[in-house]
Specification:
The complex is a heterodimer of chains A (196) and B (399). Chain A has one domain. The termini of chain A are far apart. By secondary structure, chain A is an all-alpha fold. In chain A, 39% of the residues are buried. Chain A has 7 helices and no strands. In chain B, helix 5 crosses helix 13. Classes of the chains: A mainly alpha (196), B mainly alpha (399). At the A-B interface, helix 1 and helix 4 of A face helix 5 and helix 13 of B. The complex binds fe (ii) ion (6 copies). One fe (ii) ion binds next to helix 7 and helix 8 of chain B. Chain A: It comes from Streptomyces roseolilacinus.
């Protein structure tokens, strides 16, 4: 055996997930892993990996918009500005994602734009970790961090982002088109999980 | 290849200071770079940090204000070089990612030096040490997957294997057993001096890095693991620095430092795959040539000796970052159960070693074992990257 089995997605490992920050940091890694997968695959496999990446990004960012950013806005000094900057980055990323959906995954143009997206997403994730998450851990008590973690996990459950052997072709088409609908459903799930 | 730095001229000292624009280098891409480019950056950062710290120590032992001023001038350039080199590392990398790259440096740099080292006693010192950093790489890799859900192979890229070495818990020796015997400055091969200085500098930078970045983690297991491995890097600095002959004069040491900088920038220039980084190695080599000449002048003036007497007639074979998998596997199969006793090596856990172990561990598992237990709980497996087959030591195969 060359390497260990694939790293499961956040929420699918045995972590207690009672801390929203750890959970989201692991999800940042999952997103990065999916970028690797898209880059190293070709043809249908690349298309499939890209779909999963789009879904995970959509779910992740929606959960952050519902759970993390509002808390940061309310509780961090200078929270408004920090959150506005993160939201602007997220908006930009979504626009690039939408434009990539129409591109041919095997074209050189796709690879180049994907790489630009990857850089932007990675910078965004580290900015969240450094300017938002650290402060959330400091200012949120354990109960609050756990409640937020439940919200993020509810989002994850709404939109499974792992490959489902045998059903890809059947579900492929419904995955991408209704991205906005997926985000809406995610939003609802988060709100009800957090009792709002 | 014949390159004798003593016969080459570089950029005049008074033209070496760079502007903000020139200092503002573009960092490498952490997800697509050549892992050995990152290793070369980390190595040269350690070398420049040592150049700066050594020059400060020398200045503190120098009474003549004119010499102090000259040291300050060159040292400012070294400080700018350090900024340019280390700022090639990207801000998006996490401390843990950079840490894994540090341990990859320790493995592949030390293994290469061990392979090339002509002196058997020094060779043994490198062979002994490499199995420890190899184990650190494995422990940090497991922590990395827990915190960031990433595999260390995304950093080391299959060039270096990730699996158990000498278990970290056994690296904690009585401090007196970390002191080695030095080489003899007049009898030893000049290459051996460069090796010792290079590995000492790399380990010193690793020690500094862990002692400063370890507490930036909030995860209790991460904080504790950095504490434990940080203490082992202190042992490693003790181990390697004691190989250097303390009879070398300050000026001789200065010459060795500058010569080594020439050697390493030249080596890395020869093998660099990233053209922008290569241009930096080349520029810095041209600066170091003049540092070397200035140091040689000081040695001639103050020691009344010709530096050519203590240096190699030409640069040795370029120091190379390349996979050392077979070599490390051979060491894993034969040297994993070694420890030190005095300045030598033994296989039995002697009394002083046992006393230190009992004192430090008590009846508790050290952080390096806890990280494995926590990883196991989280993933029902451990993280390894065994590209060349199962572990050579049957006792260390995954259960
Ligand atoms: Fe985000
Ligand atoms: Fe995020
Ligand atoms: Fe330098
Ligand atoms: Fe180490
Ligand atoms: Fe070390
Ligand atoms: Fe220098």
């Amino acid at each position: 055996m060359a390497t260990s089995a694939p790293t499961p997605h956040a929420g699918d490992d045995n972590a207690t997930d009672d801390d929203v920050v750890s959970l989201l940091m692991r999800q940042h890694g999952d997103i990065r892993n999916l970028f690797d997968e898209v880059e190293s695959a070709t043809g249908d496999e690349r298309r499939d990996a890209f779909r999963r990446l789009v879904r995970l990004l959509a779910v992740h960012e929606t959960a952050e918009e519902e759970v993390v950013h509002p808390f940061a806005r309310r509780n961090l000094p200078g929270g408004d500005q920090v959150v506005d900057e993160r939201l602007a980055e997220e908006r930009e990323a979504k626009e690039v994602l939408a434009s990539l959906e129409e591109a041919d995954p095997d074209s050189p143009d796709f690879a180049e734009r994907l790489r630009a997206l990857r850089t932007a997403v990675q910078e965004h994730a580290r900015a969240e970790e450094r300017y938002e998450f650290t402060h959330i851990r400091r200012s949120g008590d354990a109960g609050r961090l756990a409640a937020m973690a439940r919200g993020v996990k509810a989002a994850e459950a709404m939109a499974p982002t792992r490959p489902h052997p045998g059903v890809e072709s059947g579900t492929a088409n419904v995955l991408l088109g209704p991205l906005a609908a997926l985000m809406d459903r995610t939003r609802d799930a988060v709100r009800s999980a957090m009792g709002g | 290849m014949t390159f004798n730095p003593l016969e080459q001229r570089g950029i005049p000292l008074d033209r070496q200071v760079r502007s903000w624009r020139e200092l503002d280098v573009a960092p490498i891409d952490p997800d697509h770079c050549d892992p050995y480019t990152r290793c070369r950056i980390i190595t040269m950062n350690g070398i420049e940090v040592e150049a700066i710290l050594f020059s400060h120590q020398l200045a503190r032992h120098t009474a003549d204000p004119e010499i102090k001023r000259q040291l300050a001038r060159v040292r400012y350039v070294e400080a700018q070089q350090q900024k340019v080199v280390n700022w090639l590392l990207p801000g998006v990398s996490s401390v843990l990612e950079t840490t894994i790259a540090y341990e990859q440096v320790a493995v592949d740099l030390t293994a290469w030096v061990a392979r090339m080292e002509p002196d058997p006693y020094l060779k043994q010192a490198y062979q002994f040490g490499v199995l420890e950093d190899f184990d650190h790489l494995y422990r940090y890799a497991n922590l990395y997957e827990m915190i960031e859900h990433r595999k260390a192979e995304s950093i080391v890229d299959g060039l270096t294997e990730v699996m158990p070495g000498r278990p970290t818990r056994f690296h904690h020796r009585d401090p007196v057993d970390n002191v080695r015997d030095p080489y003899a400055k007049d009898a030893t091969n000049p290459l051996s001096k460069l090796h010792a200085l290079t590995i000492m500098s790399a380990e010193q930078q690793t020690m500094n890095f862990y002692m400063n970045t370890g507490p930036t983690y909030m995860e209790p297991i991460a904080r504790r693991l950095y504490q434990e491995i940080g203490l082992i890097e202190e042992e490693h600095v003790t181990h390697y620095e004691s190989l250097v002959d303390p009879g070398e004069t300050w000026w001789e040491q200065l010459v060795n430092h500058e010569y080594n900088e020439c050697y390493l920038y030249y080596s890395f220039m020869e093998q660099e795959s990233d053209p922008k980084v290569r241009a930096i190695w080349e520029l810095h080599l041209n600066m170091e040539l003049e540092h070397l000449h200035a140091a040689c002048d000081l040695m001639r003036r103050h020691d009344g000796r010709d530096p050519a007497e203590v240096l190699a007639p030409e640069l040795p074979n370029v120091l190379t970052f390349e996979p050392n998998k077979a070599y490390v596997r051979e060491l894993l199969a034969t040297q994993i159960d070694l420890t030190t006793l005095g300045a030598g090596y033994v296989r039995e856990a002697h009394e002083r070693f046992e006393a230190m172990q009992a004192r430090l561990h008590g009846d508790e598992a050290p952080p390096s074992d806890q990280v494995m237990a926590e990883h196991q709980d989280m993933f029902d497996r451990e993280y390894r990257l065994e590209t060349e087959g199962e572990h050579p030591d049957p006792a260390l195969r995954e259960k």
